[in-house]
Design brief:
By secondary structure, the chain is of the alpha/beta class. The chain has 14 helices and 10 strands.
Length: 370
């Protein structure tokens, strides 16, 4: 079924994600708020568990309901297992790369750790924005003098509460499009660099700052370099393509895990920022060569071990079952019980106050730490 280019199946996915994130925030996350003042670690543990149930539902919708095949390939050479927090770097082929990466995090059992950098304007979406702020996703304003303060605030907060996390960074800054490719080519010509066809030249200022802060706090010991490639179907360049059903048949993620010490090995004569810039530019050069072979279906180097692409669909089906019964119970109780309706009013008042009058939920959480 399609309505003016919109396929009902994919519209239903968006609606289900919106409803579950909103209801989950009001009835599952809000009750934990009081724990911020008596047991912060328990607060984050319960929030992480609840958010993982939503992330798992998103994985179900992508892989089972939409039928997208996800393939995870892990390097046989660069396979350092982190004991601390990590940074995940990824090429930004489409605007939905971050959403598809949930499927990999599910396989890595790291859904509760992920922190995504988003545009500040997304904070204005009632419901999902409340959940994303409770998850402490990082919202930036694209003004470096302000953004570096935002990065430091979040990184230092996690350092204070001794919480492990993974921050997803797209060094290219934007997804591939005709406009971004032209800007990348202009940058390459100005810097006397080769033009790229399958990636965009990375920008390193934000990455360097985040790494430096985490490294000085002794929070990080590993960087994941993720290369994503799409096969079959259509490329979802933007969010509206998802609604139109323009989806790939397969998505391949190639993951290299680098120890920070290995990156800096035998390079003590250079500043770490310079080493990182050279390293990331070299990695993007290798991505370009790798993706050229990938999209031309040439023989790839046998440097990756392909993990089982199929997942336990029975176990994954537990997520929609949970949401079906939870939403049914919540709607019934809200309709018939005055106490539950009063609770809903209080929860809505709290979130609307934080969003439109106060300083947003994420700042409320961080500033509550004395």
């Amino acid at each position: 079924m399609a309505i003016k280019g919109i396929k009902f199946k994919y519209l239903l996915v968006i609606l289900m994600l919106y409803v579950t994130s909103t209801i989950g925030t009001l009835y599952m996350l809000f009750p934990y708020t009081i724990l911020l003042y008596c047991n912060r670690k328990l607060y984050h543990k319960l929030c992480d568990y609840s958010l993982q149930i939503w992330f798992g539902f998103a994985v179900f919708l992508l892989e089972v309901f939409c039928g997208i095949k996800i393939h995870m390939h892990v390097s046989k050479v660069n396979k350092y297992e982190s004991k601390k927090s990590t940074i995940a770097l990824m090429n930004h082929r489409t605007r939905l790369d971050w959403l598809f990466y949930f499927c990999i995090l599910y396989r890595l059992n790291a859904l509760s750790q992920i922190k995504i950098i988003l545009k500040d304007s997304l904070k204005r979406i009632p419901g999902p924005a409340w959940a994303m702020q409770t998850a402490l996703f990082i919202f930036i304003r694209r003004k470096w003098t302000e953004d570096q303060i935002i990065f430091d605030k979040f990184i230092d907060y996690y350092n204070k509460i001794e919480k492990k996390f993974m921050i997803l960074i797209f060094p290219e800054g934007t997804n591939m499009s005709q406009d971004s490719i032209q800007k990348s080519n202009k940058f390459a010509d100005e810097k006397n660099l080769p033009r790229y066809e399958y990636v965009i030249h990375p920008r390193v200022t934000g990455f360097n700052h985040i790494f430096k802060r985490m490294y000085s706090n002794e929070q990080i010991d590993c960087i994941h370099d993720v290369t994503v490639g799409y096969r079959g179907g259509k490329m979802p360049e933007r969010e509206t393509d998802f609604l139109a059903g323009n989806m790939p048949k397969e998505i391949h993620f190639y993951i290299d895990k680098f120890s920070c010490e290995k990156i800096f090995e035998d390079k003590n004569d250079k500043p770490k920022s310079e080493i990182l810039e050279e390293w990331i530019c070299e990695r993007w050069k290798q991505k370009e060569e790798f993706l050229k072979k990938f999209y031309n279906q040439e023989q790839l180097e046998n440097n990756y071990e392909t993990n089982a692409s199929t997942i336990n669909k029975f176990y994954l089906t537990m997520y929609p079952i949970f949401w079906f019964f939870s939403l049914s119970l919540i709607f019934l109780l809200t309709y018939y019980n005055l106490f539950v309706r009063s609770f809903l009013f209080i929860a809505l008042s709290f979130y609307f106050y934080q969003q439109f009058i106060s300083n947003n939920i994420d700042n409320f959480i961080i500033n509550s730490l004395k």
